[in-house]
Specification:
Largest sheet of chain B: 7 strands, mixed
Helix content of chain A: under 10%
Oligomer: heterodimer
Mean pLDDT of chain A: 91
Structural class of chain B: mainly beta
Radius of gyration of chain B: 13 Å
Strand content of chain A: over 45%
Mean pLDDT of chain B: 90
Structural class of chain A: mainly beta
Low-confidence stretches of chain B: none
Chain lengths: 111, 111
């Protein structure tokens, strides 16, 4: 079983839609949860970082963590064509001293 | 502020040729440094990480090696490239606190 699973998509939505991206993880020892955005032919950039259950909001982006279900989500409100990218979830535990990444979900926001 | 430099951006190499990819970090000292490879549809695969000069941990036994000759320099090498070495190579560093900062990546095509 992989440490983290992510639906690869692709996901295509119209501009202005609410987007929901999801990952599940296998080990309750993981403490830190991140979302990265990666534009084509570029390195991933950190979008959201959280370490607790519940919601964390940053502008149009909301990261949600449910540790009891081992489920993490990223919501994008009022999606824009510039949000078109691949989104990767990542999990981390200092016990393991490394990050585990999902395979990424490719999002296309159509104008 | 911390920055990470990675070069070259694109590389086309024949099978059997050597490889050297370089990554340098500025604005921090004693960073944890990482080499990842990203293959299409397969997510990020951790290749090597280093917690200090001369300290290299290998995650995946393969045709590649890494070295850390200086505190802020991390090099990925191969003596003889294989077709399967093609991919998008990313250098990353982790400071205290939040997630990775990635370089802009090197797209390697072995022909």
């Amino acid at each position: 079983q992989k440490e983290v699973e992510q639906d690869p998509g692709p996901l295509s939505v119209p501009e202005g839609a609410i987007v929901s991206l999801n990952c599940t993880y296998s080990n309750s020892a993981f403490q830190y949860f991140m979302w990265y955005r990666q534009y084509s032919r570029k390195g991933p950039e950190l979008l959201m970082y959280t370490y607790s259950s519940g919601n964390k909001e940053d502008g149009r982006f909301t990261a949600q963590v449910d540790k009891s279900s081992k489920y993490i989500s990223l919501f994008i409100r009022d999606s824009q064509p510039s949000d078109s990218a691949t989104y990767l979830c990542a999990i981390h535990s200092y016990n393991f001293n490394k990050f585990y990444f999902g395979s990424g979900t490719k999002l296309n926001v159509k104008p | 502020s911390q920055t990470i430099h990675q070069w070259p951006a694109t590389l086309v190499q024949p099978v059997g040729s050597p490889l050297s990819l370089e990554c340098t970090v500025e604005g921090t000292s004693n960073p944890n440094l990482y080499w990842y490879r990203q293959a299409a549809g397969r997510g990020l695969q951790l290749l090597f990480y280093s917690v200090g000069i001369g300290q290299i941990s290998s995650e995946v036994p393969q045709n590649l090696s890494a070295s850390r000759p200086q505190d802020r320099q991390f090099i990925l090498s191969s003596k003889k490239l294989l077709l399967s070495d093609s991919g998008f190579y990313l250098c990353a560093w982790k400071g205290s606190g939040e997630g990775y900062t990635f370089g802009s990546g090197t797209r390697l095509t072995v022909v």
